[in-house]
Design goal:
100 residues, mainly alpha
Length: 100
């Protein structure tokens, strides 16, 4: 507070106490703004991570669907792949030697 009072006095305001209080309030506002910027950056990082995970959901779902259809239900692998690829095109592929 002493530093703020001396700063206020150097600014030639009529009331150095009032000015010091004003400067203290401004300092608190700056702190709040810094905290808000930090939180915003943190939320943006979390959002980026979530977006990456969301992009992978259709592919993972297609892989699970393929496994359930081909291994559990006994559907031919080619038919299971066709169905799974409707969820996420190009997810399930076979080597060219298996397609004969």
């Amino acid at each position: 507070m002493t530093k703020l009072e001396s700063r206020a006095a150097s600014m030639n305001f009529a009331s150095k106490d009032l000015c010091a209080k004003q400067l203290a309030i401004e300092g608190l506002e700056e702190t709040k703004m810094r905290e808000l910027h930090y939180r915003l950056a943190s939320f943006e990082q979390k959002l980026e991570v979530l977006e990456k995970h969301i992009e992978q959901v259709p592919k993972k779902l297609a892989q699970v669907l393929y496994f359930v259809l081909s291994e559990v239900s006994g559907i031919k692998e080619e038919d299971a792949a066709k169905i799974a690829n409707h969820v996420a095109p190009g997810t399930i592929t076979f080597p060219s030697s298996m397609r004969q």
